[in-house]
Batch of 2 targets.
Target 1
Amino acid sequence: MNRRHFLMKGGTALAGLFLANMPLSLYAAHHEPAEGAHKLPELPYAYDALEPHIDTLTMTIHHGKHHQGYVNKLNAALKGHDELMKMSVEDLLRHIDKVPMDIRQAVINSGGGHANHSFFWKIMRPTGGMPHGEVADALKARFGSLQAADDLFDHTMLTLFGSGWTWLVVDENKALQIYATPNQDSPLMKGHAPVLGLDVWEHAYYLKHQNRRLDYSVAWGKVINWEQVNTNYVEAMAR
Ligand code: MN3
């Protein structure tokens, strides 16, 4: 078997080299601002910064249209619920059983979409890198090796039917788990803390990779911000 080393593929700083010469303003300038407490976070890098691994047009639409859409729908769902509107989206999801039934599924979908994407942008960066620190040690201890963790993550991602996410989380017993969730369901709803997550909706990869989900995961493996992933792990263990 040809092993792909998705978690172990060091990144390369090729940002910008393959920048398509396209009018970004056509996409970026037309965000509809959300009415309400929740806002679209700025990306911590430019739309073209993850090229050639994650392409500029995908990033532009994914952040400016899809993520903005989740923010807008979350604000719309919470309209008139002033106490809920004051809560962070993470706390809403952690306490989803307290959200009234008539808006609960909307908060799961749109709040989950907002939280998941806000998390996702932060665990990528142009220079990628290799797993290191406490999270690398924990992956080896839990799954036997980084390769075994990599294999399980890819298998979980490839066998997810339909749209959803693949996660590495710290569970309620402070143990690492790898699993998939459907749609925009957040691990926060189970009391789990996300450490690493991959968006496996087609909008995340179809423009560049079409139906080749595995190619997408390999490309993504080159732009993982392992500093942030390690921070996520350390903070989850300290909670
Ligand atoms: Mn997405």
Target 2
Amino acid sequence: MQIVFIGPPGSGKGTQAERIVQKYGIAHLSTGDMLRAARDAKTAVGVEAERYMAAGELVPDDIIVAIIAERLEQPDCRNGYLLDGIPRTIGQAEALGRMLQEKGTSLDCVLELKVPEDELFRRLAGRGRADDQPEVIRQRLLAYYEQTEPLLDYYRKQGLLKRIDGVGTIDEIFQRAEAVLDAYAH
Ligand code: AMP
């Protein structure tokens, strides 16, 4: 199973991603987690990425594409994976498509978690991560609506987009995800 999981900051995507990868036995590839680990380890990539992350802006595509290309080669990706936080731009989606095509494979589906904007701001303001300051939250939501939302159309045209309602309890939302994803499990 090879899926992309898209949802705005604060949509509960991380929580649902954990449950999905556990149920289907696939790798969880979160570029946010990878970048935070690189930042904390003070690698060259991490130091460069931190300038963008601290401002709520997207890290340049070439850095992200290099990170994910390397990650997809790891043995735990052979059973499939859930991409969480990538692609964030059309450029990243195109690079990902080319990477998969070179391997003779493709995505099964793109799952979108839908949550209204006022609800997102409320949730993010209560979370307390370093990039959850009000100004940075606003910037991250802006980056999502300007750069990531166009991806939904891109994948809809390819017939890959499945949308689920992200308002409800964790269990309710997970059941909606399962109703879509069970079709791709084997
Ligand atoms: P996240 O945990 O997915 O919300 O990511 C936190 C921050 O990491 C984002 O605000 C971006 O600065 C950066 N980031 C994570 N994934 C990407 C990506 N695919 N492209 C660009 N920047 C990213």
